[in-house]
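Re: the request from the purification team.
They wanted to know what the chain is likely to look like in 3D before they choose a buffer screen. I agreed to run a prediction and write the result into the notebook, where they can find it.
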Amino acid sequence: MLNDGSSGGVLTDAEEQRFRAVLFSELGNKIADQGWVRFPAYTPEDRRRLVDVAHRLTTYWGQQVLVEAEDQCRLRLCLAGFEALPKTLPASSSQPDSPTTRST
């Protein structure tokens, strides 16, 4: 299992580079296999690190890797077409008379 890196202190430049290389490889493999991956991001630095990895994967693959916040502690990296479904419907489609929400 890949350590999220947030349990320790500040990383040296060399440690940071190694950690980002591991994230690039491990998360990239998971995205390549299933189209998406979620990973903990407890701190602003964790979130910056994952956004950077997504940008690097986008450049490497020539296909955009999107970043979505699932909650305050997790980010989801995914390829286009593997985005998470919205949790709520738009206000216009939640009206009782709407044909898409009327029960039969």
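For the purification team: Confidence is low (pLDDT under 50) at residues 98-104.
Please add any questions underneath this entry.
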